[in-house]
TrEMBL record:
<feature type="binding site">
    <location>
        <position position="166"/>
    </location>
    <ligand>
        <name>ATP</name>
    </ligand>
</feature>
<comment type="similarity">
    <text>Belongs to the Thz kinase family.</text>
</comment>
<keyword id="KW-0479">Metal-binding</keyword>
<protein>
    <recommendedName>
        <fullName>Hydroxyethylthiazole kinase</fullName>
        <ecNumber>2.7.1.50</ecNumber>
    </recommendedName>
</protein>
<feature type="binding site">
    <location>
        <position position="193"/>
    </location>
    <ligand>
        <name>substrate</name>
    </ligand>
</feature>
<dbReference type="GO" id="GO:0004417">
    <property type="term" value="F:hydroxyethylthiazole kinase activity"/>
</dbReference>
<keyword id="KW-0547">Nucleotide-binding</keyword>
<dbReference type="InterPro" id="IPR000417">
    <property type="entry name" value="Hyethyz_kinase"/>
</dbReference>
<feature type="binding site">
    <location>
        <position position="119"/>
    </location>
    <ligand>
        <name>ATP</name>
    </ligand>
</feature>
<comment type="pathway">
    <text>Cofactor biosynthesis; thiamine diphosphate biosynthesis; 4-methyl-5-(2-phosphoethyl)-thiazole from 5-(2-hydroxyethyl)-4-methylthiazole: step 1/1.</text>
</comment>
<dbReference type="InterPro" id="IPR029056">
    <property type="entry name" value="Ribokinase-like"/>
</dbReference>
<comment type="function">
    <text>Catalyzes the phosphorylation of the hydroxyl group of 4-methyl-5-beta-hydroxyethylthiazole (THZ).</text>
</comment>
<keyword id="KW-0067">ATP-binding</keyword>
<keyword id="KW-0784">Thiamine biosynthesis</keyword>
<keyword id="KW-0808">Transferase</keyword>
<keyword id="KW-0418">Kinase</keyword>
<dbReference type="Pfam" id="PF02110">
    <property type="entry name" value="HK"/>
</dbReference>
Length: 263
């Protein structure tokens, strides 16, 4: 059994600043989730200030949810700062399976900057590995799990990064060790921004302990929170309950409910 006590205690007792450049659709929920986990979110995008903001942060989350030229300028400055100041970078290549510009941008970042965690759904990770588009949208493609496990391992070695592939079962690999996490709720993909929220929790957890267990903790906070929030009511109730459960969750609950395999 993975021991989450130390990682969770660090996150609850100490505050790190997490710089997140994410979609405005998810920014409010992401910020509130990080605050509920005792972390300090900052969502700066203006290219003239992001170097300084990143320099003073403990982790940088880059999410390609909504793109425009101004945001790309800000992302570039943030990445330059993170590389120069040894700030861990978490990349969420949203839509890399759907459009050429997103795929090419993601590949460029992976090749040029020291991405510590690459987190995407199955189809996004699949597209980055094969360097070709695989969907007409951002939803995960129905890809064979065993094939996905191999892709995650190979990508991790290729780019010297931890790879997270989210789907019905979530895969984490650093090329040597691979975890398969099996918690979650079918309602999660129906709520806009849960992928962004996960990226933020990963950034926070990884800023304290730079290993697979920290990422497993982050994924479990969201997935087990979703299990606890799931009710026979509408999506708005689920979303509010999800935010509540994330704020209330503790390491004992995670260790009691987590379902996973070490591969």
């Amino acid at each position: 059994m993975i021991d989450f006590n130390t990682s969770f205690k660090k996150m609850k007792e100490s505050t790190h600043m997490i710089h997140a450049i994410v979609s405005p659709l998810a920014s409010n929920d992401l910020a509130n989730v990080l605050l509920s986990l005792n972390q300090a979110p900052i969502l700066a995008e203006y290219y003239r200030e992001v170097y300084e903001v990143t320099q003073n942060s403990h982790a940088l989350l880059i999410n390609l949810g909504t793109l425009n030229q101004s945001k790309l300028m800000g992302i570039k400055e943030a990445l330059i700062s993170a590389k120069a100041n040894d700030i861990p970078i978490i990349l969420d290549p949203v839509g890399a399976s759907a459009t050429k510009v997103r795929l090419e941008t993601s590949l460029y970042y992976l090749k040029k900057y020291p991405i510590k965690v690459l987190k995407g759904n199955y189809s996004e990770i699949y597209s980055i590995y094969y360097q070709k588009l695989s969907t007409n949208g951002v939803d995960a493609k129905n890809i064979d799990k065993d094939q996905m496990i191999k892709i995650c391992r190979d990508l991790s070695t290729m780019y010297n990064t931890i790879v997270v592939a989210s789907g019905k079962e979530d895969i984490i690999s650093d090329g040597k060790e691979t975890l398969l996490l099996k918690n979650g709720s079918p309602l999660l993909p129906k709520v806009t921004g849960t992928g962004c929220i996960l990226g933020g929790i990963i950034a926070a957890s990884y800023s304290f302990e730079k290993n697979l267990n920290a990422i497993a903790l982050a994924i479990s906070i969201l997935n087990i929170g979703a299990e606890l929030a799931q009710k026979d009511k509408g999506m708005a109730t689920f979303k509010i309950s999800l935010l509540d459960q994330i704020s209330l969750i503790d390491s004992k609950t995670i260790e009691e409910r987590i379902v996973y395999e070490k591969l």
